[in-house]
Amino acid sequence: MGFDTSATKSIFFIASVIVAVVLSGVFTGVTYKLSSDIDMRGTMLSDVLKSDIEIINDPENVPYNSTTNELIIYVKNTGKSILSTSDLTIIIDGFVVPEGNFSIEILGEYTAWSPGIVIKITIIESLSSGDHKIKVVLDNGVYDEMYFRI
Amino acid sequence: MGFSEIAVAAVLFSTILLIGISLGAAYFNYLDEVDEAKKVNNEILYSKLNTCLVILNATYYTSNSTLVLIFENEGDTVLNLDLVNIFLDGILVGNVTDFTYSVNDRSDTKLAFQGDLVNVIIPYERVPSRVMIVSDSGVKTISSVSAQ
Questions:
Q1: Is CATH 1.10.10 the classification given to domain A53-149?
Q2: Are the Cβ atoms of B37 and A116 closer than 8 angstroms?
């Protein structure tokens, strides 16, 4: 075996090990991403399954002031997790209420929307007399809807 | 097989093993988390389905401007009266424990078990026509109010 042959073998050896290590790195990176995505998916699904809300207004007696256009909606956390009040979406008769047109208050001496706690949503919206539908959607997609009459 | 092939095979085998372990662990964690969440979801549904409140009497006394509300827990869940809301004519006036109340004539408890009678005395300025109570699980019960 001459010097040329050894050098060639060494080059092939180093090259193949480098290729294998690079491939391993790529596969490991992809696997890490996939694992964290599976974890995230599990957390999201768990969050959805543990969340539940209920609009608890009396559907025949929803407080609405036709002069100030103030509609008051009470929503109860009937799930088992603490919910965020910052990313609520409110839809009345199929139209999303702009964020500036409603305010949220956690009732009682509570600072978080824990299970069993009610929030009061005051919505400024002009509504005609008759039947309407309201839908309250959480940031994770869990929602409740109610038909009511004014 | 030369030394280079063995080295490459070793590197690739280790990688595949690592990938298998990592993916397997992530998948089983996912299953555990979802199973636990499903149990919680079932508890939420069970609580809604098995809650039943019956308003036995809702009388407003004009002489002292108070509403006397008597209801029974007919479901097989335990009611936390701290989280039972009372609405009069659509307005949330408070929770049971915000008022003078008793459970089977006892006032030292905040829980109502199956068959327990809850008596609440609510001061209210005007005669209400409709009362609604909402359980901690979100189940509503509505009744009209009689005035005396």
A1: no
A2: no
Structure tokens at A104: 């949220």
Distance of alpha carbon B84 from alpha carbon B68, whole angstroms: 16
Tokens of A55: 């609009």
Tens of pLDDT along A38-63? 989 999 999 999 999 999 999 888 99
CATH of B53-147, one of 1.20.1630, 2.30.30, 1.10.3470, 2.60.40: 2.60.40
What is the ipTM metric for this complex? 0.85
Q: What three-state secondary structure class fits A145?
A: strand
Give the single-character DSSP code of B104.
T
Question: Do A116 and B80 make contact, defined as CB atoms within 8 angstroms?
Answer: yes
Query: Per-residue pLDDT tens for B55-95?
Result: 999 999 999 999 999 999 999 899 999 999 999 999 999 99
Q: Using DSSP bridges, classify how beta strands A53-55 and B111-112 pair: parallel, antiparallel or unpaired.
A: unpaired
Q: B77: Cβ–Cβ under 8 A, 6 or more apart, which residues?
A: B46, B47, B50, B51, B135, B137
Domain spans of chain A, in order of start: 1-50, 53-149
Cα A127 to Cα A131: distance, rounded to the nearest angstrom = 10
Strand pairing report for B66-73 and B53-61: antiparallel
Residues of chain A contacting B22 with CB distance shorter than 8 Å: 31-32, 35
Mean pLDDT of chain B: 92
Beta strands across the sheet bearing A131-137: A95-96, A89-92, A131-137, A143-149
| Contact: B12, A35; criterion CB under 8 Å | no
Q: Name which of A97, A106, A108, A107 is nearest A69 in CA terms.
A: A97
Whether B82 contacts chain A with CB within 8 A: yes
Q: How far apart are CA B38 and CA A72, in angstroms?
A: 33
